[in-house]
Amino acid sequence: MNRSGTERGTRMPSGIDPTVDYAFKRLFGHETTRELLVDLLNAVHAGKRVRDVTLRNPFSGKASPTDKATIYDICATDQGGRQHHVEMQKQVQWSLRMRAIYYAARLHGQQMAEGDVFETLLPTLSVCFLGANLLDDPAYHHRFALWDHERGVLLAKDLEIHLIELAKFDLPAEKCRTPLEQWCYFLRHGATLDLDKLPAALDVPMLRKALEVLMKLSQDQIERQQYEDRIKGQRDAAWLVRAPVVARKQGELLGKINLAQRVLKLAETPDQELLELSSEELAALA
To answer: Is this structure's pTM higher than 0.85?
Structure first.
């Protein structure tokens, strides 16, 4: 076997999760991988052909892992002047609907400078990939626009918001037929995909290039550390959001237990002793 064949035979999956926003922007927001973003946009916006993009905030890899996730959003302009906003949100909060509307509208309005006229505005297309479910509908891809839904009349084509809920995407690899299905499968399973053993339905040039980017990221010591730091930062941020809720629930359970013990004229268990129990144990005791 020749040297290149040996190298291909020894490659392993990257272990890099493309839904971690650091990896996501490294894939789709880097100057050297603009073709991946073009392919992704064409997969989402079927019929709105994108030939090239200019990145307005290209990936630098210098952001602190504690910075807000919005710095990892991707903003680009295509050959026709249309604005594109793409982001990955692993944690889905109840306010995401309002957030998506706010950022899309804000980006759309930023086109206007003093003295401009409204006729110069060009479409703004926002795409948000979600790591968890937001909507009750079983469909994984929703396109929202300015419609009169009762009469089916479109007010304007100038503002669209796409929500793609990856948790709902459950197609097996062999059934992925469209480019969007291929990209969704990649985003869900990219960390475990083997570049040398790709299912036939996924063996396309852009997915191969995306996997090569993940491999490079995994093998670069600095980038790998940035990726790991970003995961830690996301976990810490998620805990800060959950901690008050957990503490409130614990407090409610302690109050119920203490009240029940007083009513039953039992010795009250010290709070410090109760706090050593898990939430499930507290609930059972209450």
So the answer is: no
